[in-house]
Design brief:
181 residues; mainly alpha; Protein Binding, DinI Protein, Chain A; 2 strands
């Protein structure tokens, strides 16, 4: 088998080589020019002043609900203990009625607990969503000013390693609080 190179093939290859080299060099330059930042959104949310206020408000409401639930739980426990003591001397009808009342109260308590958890979660979303939106805008502003091509969330288990200099969390917190004032 004889391989022959004709003149056209050689000229085409020679013409393509500078183009290929230019693409390779520009790709390498593009890799070097990418600037990637990292933000710990959870830390930022908990550190900005409005985040601290939201957390304090949420804790206040949570503690009030917790206190209410603990009082109801203690009342049910007392009712249960009284039922155990009195059940031996009660008639079957009275025992069944009292047991039904106790079970109904337990079910209402469970519903109240579930509803309270849902309300607290909804309140947390209502309080934090506007702050998160403003944090994202602040991150975007900083990224544009510093020419970042990409900013990643530090705690989403996708960033396994980053340089400390690429973490802009403290800058985001400062800028956010400055804008809020």
């Amino acid at each position: 088998m004889k391989t022959t190179f004709n003149t056209k093939t050689i000229y085409r290859t020679a013409a393509l080589l500078p183009g290929i080299a230019l693409v390779a060099m520009s790709s390498m330059a593009a890799v070097d020019s990418h600037h990637i930042g990292i933000v710990d959104m959870q830390k930022a949310l908990q550190s900005v002043e409005s985040g601290k206020k939201a957390k304090a408000q949420l804790e206040k409401e949570f503690n009030a609900k917790k206190k209410e639930l603990q009082a109801e739980e203690a009342s049910i426990k007392k009712m249960s203990e009284e039922f155990k003591k009195q059940s031996l001397v009660m008639s079957d009808d009275a025992r069944a009625k009292k047991q039904g009342e106790l079970q109904e109260r337990i079910m209402k308590f469970q519903e109240l607990t579930g509803r309270s958890q849902s309300e607290i979660q909804q309140k947390e979303r209502d309080l934090t969503q506007p702050i998160i939106s403003r944090l994202r805008a602040t991150i975007s502003d900083i990224a544009k000013k510093r020419d970042y091509s990409l900013v990643l969330e530090k705690n989403e288990n996708q960033v396994l390693y980053s340089l400390e200099k690429d973490d802009i969390t403290s800058d985001v917190i400062s800028a956010f609080d400055k804008q809020a004032k």
